[in-house]
Amino acid sequence: DVKVTQSSRYLVKRTGEKVFLECVQDMDHENMFWYRQDPGLGLRLIYFSYDVKMKEKGDIPEGYSVSREKKERFSLILESASTNQTSMYLCASSLTRGSPDRSGNTIYFGEGSWLTVV
Amino acid sequence: KQEVTQIPAALSVPEGENLVLNCSFTDSAIYNLQWFRQDPGKGLTSLLLIQSSQREQTSGRLNASLDKSSGRSTLYIAASQPGDSATYLCAVKGSYIPTFGRGTSLIVHP
């Protein structure tokens, strides 16, 4: 089975700290995504990557950056954490459309990282 | 821009009922549609994936249908159980990026 692992489930950080959220997938997926999820706002895309060293801004990239040095790892970076970045962060991965795959390009999610910025 | 709407936003039913969750989308040019379940404080778990060429998919007590031309999908849950209580989200994929609905929060009470 595909596994998407988010290394930190719960974090508490101070305002102004640099925060790294790590995500690793074990199925050689090209596409990886970072979302944040807030009550009443649903899932909002922060960044996505369709290949190593490639990244594209999503709907809410301000205050965030990402790194994809290896295919299996996609990191979300908060350069200077602020209280309005307190949220649940979800990482996901999928194969590129058109790739032969019995799962038909299913999107797989990690368990989520709860970040509190104080 | 693709928009995905899920109705109802919340649903509370007694155990044993058959129920239908709805997902509608504005752009019918999609590759697939996926239904997820999310338990409180957890990530999303994939339930069913329907390719654009398919009409439905079944897994146990779950059946998902897709009518691409009308921009609609339904998730049918048979004989609901308290363990089915969760938020159910649908996502449509027309390119690299899936578009998610805001989910239907389901409570099944004993």
Question: Which features does this protein show?
Answer:
heterodimer; A: 118 residues; mainly beta; 7-stranded mixed beta sheet; B: 110 residues
Radius of gyration of chain A: 14 Å
- State the separation between the terminal residues of chain B, measured CA to CA: 41 Å
Question: Helical stretch count of chain A?
Answer: 0
- Helix fraction of chain A by DSSP (H/I, runs of at least 4): under 10%
The SSE order of chain B reads EEEEEEEEEEE
Which class best fits the helix and strand makeup of chain A? mainly beta
Mean pLDDT of chain B: 94
Shape of chain A: globular
User: Secondary-structure element sequence of chain A?
Assistant: EEEEEEEEEEE
Which band does the percent of strand residues of chain A land in? over 45%
Spans where pLDDT lies below 50 across 5 or more residues of chain B: none
Shape of chain B: globular
The end-to-end distance of chain A, rounded to whole angstroms, is 37 Å
Which chain pair shows the most residues in contact? A-B, 28 and 23 residues
Largest sheet of chain A at a glance?
A: 7 strands, mixed
Mean pLDDT across the residues of chain A is 90
Beta-strand segment tally of chain A: 11
Major β-sheet annotation of chain B: 6 strands, mixed
- Which percent range fits the helix content of chain B? under 10%
Strand content of chain B: over 45%
Contiguous runs where pLDDT drops below 50 for at least 5 residues of chain A: none
Plain-language structure description:
The complex is a heterodimer of chains A (118) and B (110). In chain A, 0% of the residues lie in helices and 51% in strands. With 118 residues, chain A is mostly beta strands. By secondary structure, chain B is an all-beta fold. Chain B contains no helices and eleven strands.
